[in-house]
Structure formats: structure tokens, C-alpha cells
Amino acid sequence: MAEIVLEGIAKRFADGTQALQPTDLRIRDGEFFVLVGPSGCGKSTLLKIIVGLERPSAGEVRVAGEVVTGKDPKDRNMAMVFQSYAIYPHMTVRENMAFPLKLARLPATEIAARVEEAAAILELTELLGRRPAALSGGQRQRVAMGRAIVRQPAAFLLDEPLSNLDAKLRVQMRTELGRLQRRLGTTTVYVTHDQTEALTLGERIAVLRRGAIQQVGTPRDLYQDPANLFVAGFIGAPAMNLLPATLAGDRLRLPMLELALPGGPRGGSGACEVIAGIRPEHFRVASTVGEGARFRAQVELVEWLGADLFVHFDVAAPHGARLGALAEELGLPGEHDRRRLVARLGSDCRVREGEALALGIDAAAVQLFDPDSGGRIELG
Amino acid sequence: MNERGILERLFWRVGALLVIGYALLPVAWILALSLKPAAALGDGRFLPRAPSLEHYRAIFADAQFPAALLNSLGIAALATLASVLLGMLAAYAIVRLRFRGRSLVLGAALAIAMFPPVAVIGPLFELWRGIGLYDTWPGLILPYMTFTLPLAIWTLAAYFREIPWDLDQAARVDGATPLQAFRYVIAPLAAPGVFTAAILVFIFAWNDFLFAAALTSTNAARTVPAAIAFFTGSSRFELPTGSIAAASVVVTVPVTLLVLVFQRRIVAGLTAGAVKG
Ligand SMILES: Nc1ncnc2c1ncn2[C@@H]1O[C@H](COP(=O)(O)OP(=O)(O)OP(=O)(O)O)[C@@H](O)[C@H]1O
Ligand SMILES: [Mg+2]
Fold it and tell me: Which of B170, B177, B188 minimises the CB distance to A86?
């Protein structure tokens, strides 16, 4: 168990790829810390630097106060679960789990006891004699976890451990993983590109983009107070609706309507371009808002999920260069002169595709971003 | 079963029999010859009328053949060991490390394999005489190693490439030194490749006549293929056909055994289950 501190860690590969910008990160003792970001943003690289499989080009890694930057992975007492599981195919489940203990030269009785214990925790007892080839995907995943927990390591490093499982198993294993970590209380760094996984598992989350950390915070922080456009667009499913808008005093002019922002006019007197972010749940069917501004949405698609109803509609709005690039990076829907928005409404709303619907917006919940820097503009 | 199925099976059976017959006929002929008494060698029959082991007794009675057999076994085994061991390390480095000139090494290895051995025999003969390797075991092991190493490297590199890199890294994180990761994880997984390479190298060394004939002169290092060529009949008017046949049968046995024993080990798909596939 240990606190992991990264100071000024950067990584540049021999071929010139700058996989990580200088990064500072403090992962607390016993914390479930999640690194999330799109594919290729440097998550695995960061994890491999922590575990020692890659050397950082600059900076320092400290575990429990001790500098380990130059230490060999075998001496770091960390356990890693690979995306591919990387369990040894020529060994049985028992041998797989015993392997790190054998290397550590533990006495045979101790090894047997620890393997039995870990197997019991992970419900692998019946499978101990099997080879990996005769296991299902979920079982292999558990073997990989088992090999990690038998060692009682200083930290667990998990690199997308669930991404090879089918959707149902993924949800189940996610819950089990969270429970296991709380039970063991071991510092855990969990890498994923799936923001749902990040939000459900992480005590704290770091959002990574192109090798640079965008924001570190609790799931609630990231969702409610995204530091910039990227985090706003990345966290949350369906994604936050992003629209070009004009801010003049306390009036926010959106493509489909004008809103009065609470808290009175802001400093600058002139109108300025901003990007407005509205979460799907901050739309209301207009009659329930009462007096507030409303607009008519032409419903393109309705998704009914029992408790929620997601209504998709288009808004004519040319997006600037920045929004376009971001939409492309995050795979957000919409064409160059139309934005596809999503509203989450109560399932009692009986709207159908092709119909028009009057919607209002919860003005207090609208978030504004600088179109040039992408940074958050604080309101009030 | 329908008519077409029967015909198809018949076709494959007959075809297989033809091929096997074609391949084994010379072997059967040699075996038959080796069992014929000296007087009956030219009788024009395929099967010996009265099988006798006299040629076998004769070749083992002479000191030359048992010595050659020992030389062959020792030299081939040592050359195989050295070549496969070096080949494993080289192939692993080539597959796993990114060093300058990686493809150059592979290319150079291939070029050596293409190089005609005949071209080096003359210089090698002079050189070996000069440095005292002529007619010694190392004098044959070295060229065998050199000419089979590329084969071993290429075969093994192909196998190593199939082993996910994550497995090395997992072993390193689990507390293994690079050498331990290689020994406990990578080498066992590459076992089919190791056996394949070993058999190929062994057969090359075992069958070689060229180097053996040119670089040896006495029982100290002369191997079986060369020794057979120096067989003499019991009188100067008699061809040693029977002895040659018997010796040929004897040298075939170890190679056949080797292949049969290790064939079971050369099973593909040993890495199944390492990663989700
Ligand atoms: N050995 C290497 N040599 C050169 N570039 C590399 C190397 N390993 C990774 N990279 C590059 O570094 C960047 C970050 O890679 P990394 O594997 O950390 O991404 P990731 O966030 O884990 O992505 P994914 O979600 O797809 O696993 C990528 O652009 C990748 O191409
Ligand atoms: Mg990765």
C-alpha cells in the first residue's frame, strides 16, 4: 500500500512521438484512481512508466516516498493486469497465480495458502487445475486479477481490464472489481477509455488528452464542473450538447433561443462569442418550465429506455473550427451546419418522431466555454 | 455414405499409398540389400531368400564404423545444441529489441544460408590445417553451426513473433529478471519452434557429407556419411554393397527416432489462451 507521486513525468519515444507532456499527479494511498481518455492519449504509457516497463524521458516517480524512477519493474512490487490479460498459456490457473510468489521465493506452503485464498475470493477454486485455453473470457480476466492480488502488492495497475469482455459481463466484473478494491484497500490505478467505467469506479479521475492531463477530480467534479470543452464533451453519456453562442451582458444568445442567465450581467459590456454546454437533463418540456424562454424542436429520433426518454433533434448552427475539431475527436454527431442535440425527458412525455416539441432550458445549468482556449468561463 | 464420398475416399487412400510407396521403396530396397548374404547380393530378387545379419556384424566388427557413429552423434548433437541456443538468443533479441541494424542481421543471416558451402571448403581446409582444427570435432561443429544458425534464427524468430509481448512484460512485473522471463515464459512457449529448429539442424549435421569428407581424415572425427564412402570390401575385387546398405540402415534409425519422439512436441497452438482471441 502506497502513495504514488509523479513529478514532471514526460515521455518521448525514440521515433519522436511525444506520448506524454510533463505531468504531475498524486495518487493517494488506498485510492481507486482512474485514468481516462480516448485511444492513443498516453494512458498505457503512463501506467507503464509507473510500473517501470517504460523509462520516462523526464521527471520522477515516487512510491511511498521512495524514488523508483530507475528501478526495475521486478523490484517495484506492483501488480499489473494487462488489457490482453497476459496469463501464461502453458501454466495452469494455479501455476499462473503462484508464478510471482515462486519468483519471490516464498515457501511452498505459504504459496499454496495464498493461491487458495485468492482463488476463493475470485471464485476460481474449481478452475485451479485448468489451462487458460479452457477458460472463458471472464474467467481469464479473474485469473489475471488473481495473479495480481496474491502478491499483496503496493499498488494495482489495471490497463483496460474489462475491454475484452462482452457488455453484460463487463458491468458485472466492474462491480466485482470495485468491491474487491474496497475490500483489499490497495492503491489502484485503473486505465480505461470508457467514461462510464471511469465514473462508476473512480474515487478520483484524471482525464488525459494527447498526453496532457486536462482535469483531475471526483466523478462529480468532472461531470458538474468540467474544466474545459474536452472534459465537458468526453464525460457524460449521452454527451453534453455543445453549441456556438453569443454572450451579451446577462443575455445568452443560442441558435434556437435567447436565455437570461441568472446572477446579473457579467463584466465585459460588449458581446462575445462563447460555446455553450447544456447537459441533456437540463432540457425541460416547455409547459413544465412555466414562464421561461422556449423553442420548438423538430424531433428526429426518440429513444425510450423505460425510466428515461432521449429525444434527438437538430438545430441549425454553423460550428466554428474549434467545435468542429472537438466534435470529430470525440465522435459527436452533427454536420457542419447542423448540431444534433439530445434532451433527456421524463418517460411520461409522449412525443413521437417527426413531431414538434416545445422545450425550455434550465438557464442556471448552462456552462460556457471560451471558443479559443476551450477553457471554462466561470459564471457569477 | 453416398457414391461420391466413397470415390473421394478411395482417391485419397490410393493416392496416399502411391506417394508412400514411392518414398519408401528405396528404403525398403536398402533394407533388403542389407539383409542379403554377400553371395546373394546380385541375385536380382527384391526380398532376400535367406535373411542374414552378416553385414551388420561386419560393420560393427570393424573399429571404423562404431567410431564414426559416435562422432556423428556427438558432433550433430553439439552442433544442434549450440546452434539452437545461440539461435534462440539471437532470434529473441531480433524480435524484442529495437536496435539499429536489426533487419540487417536477419538479412545477413539469410545471405549466409544462401551461400554455397562448396565455396568455403578449400579455404576452410587450409585454415583448419593451420590452426589445428583439421580432423577434430570442433572443426566440424563450427561449420555446421554457421550454416544452420540462420535457419535456426529464422525459424525461432517466427515463433517468438507469435508470442504476445505482454507475456514478457507480465513476467517482468511479476518479479522476473529478463532472463527468468525468457526461461519460464518465453522459451516454454517457443518449445515447438525450438524442437523444429533442433530437428532441422540435427538432420543437416547428420546428413552432411561435404564438410565431413573434406575436413576429416581419421576415426577422430570422421562421421558416418564420410566413413561409408571409405568402406572397403572384404577383398579388393568385391564391392562393399552389403556393408554400405547395412550402415545406411543404421544411420537412418536415430533420425527417424528423433523425429518420431519430437513430433508430438511440435504441436501448433500452444499459445492458445494467452490473450483473448
Ligand atoms: N514503443 C513506442 N514507440 C513509439 N510510439 C509509441 C510507442 N508506444 C506507444 N506509442 C505512441 O504513444 C502514444 C500513446 O500510446 P498509449 O499506448 O499510451 O495510448 P493509450 O492511451 O494506452 O491508447 P489505447 O486506449 O489505444 O490503449 C500513441 O500515439 C502511440 O502511438
Ligand atoms: Mg493502452
Answer: B170
